[in-house]
């Protein structure tokens, strides 16, 4: 009677392999809240899906070419805007799509294909797609694209002209122009230091 193998198995099942029946989740009052758990989980999944879609939309948007390069102040003169008789100060990047007559000293100027600038500019980098007339000093680099037209007194650190681009006027590198200016200054100092000729008595 007690020798039946089904009553007393020889090898006991390890504790780790025993299966414990899952208990249903209960709410505050002891009732089953599996429906609430499922709705909370689905809202979490929905929120995660929405944030992934939002990140994908942001990633699709085009990044401006000068993003991060010039993190300072930026002024854009639109296609139908005319800015005349101004002095532009504290502007890191000026983008000209309309017409500007002004003086400025800044970091970057970009003249769009339909843009025009007339005046005096001291700048680190000048990128010309449109038209410039006046006095331009590009301390680091002057870039004239195929549609660019530059005329006047032009000084540059380095220059790059695409095929089709035009530059005319008094055009010199800063190193060469600086050397000529220093030679003129030295000559004028030497002329000033010469003793005056003694008057010859008659």
Automatic annotation (TrEMBL):
Pfam families registered for this protein in UniProt: Bactofilin
Ranges of compositional bias, category Basic and acidic residues: 178-192
InterPro entries named in the record: BacA/B
Superkingdom in the source lineage: Bacteria
Region spans: Disordered: 1-37, 171-202
Family: Belongs to the bactofilin family.
PANTHER family: HYPOTHETICAL CYTOSOLIC PROTEIN, POLYMER-FORMING CYTOSKELETAL PROTEIN
Protein name: Cell shape determination protein CcmA
Taxonomic source organism: Thauera linaloolentis (strain DSM 12138 / JCM 21573 / CCUG 41526 / CIP 105981 / IAM 15112 / NBRC 102519 / 47Lol)
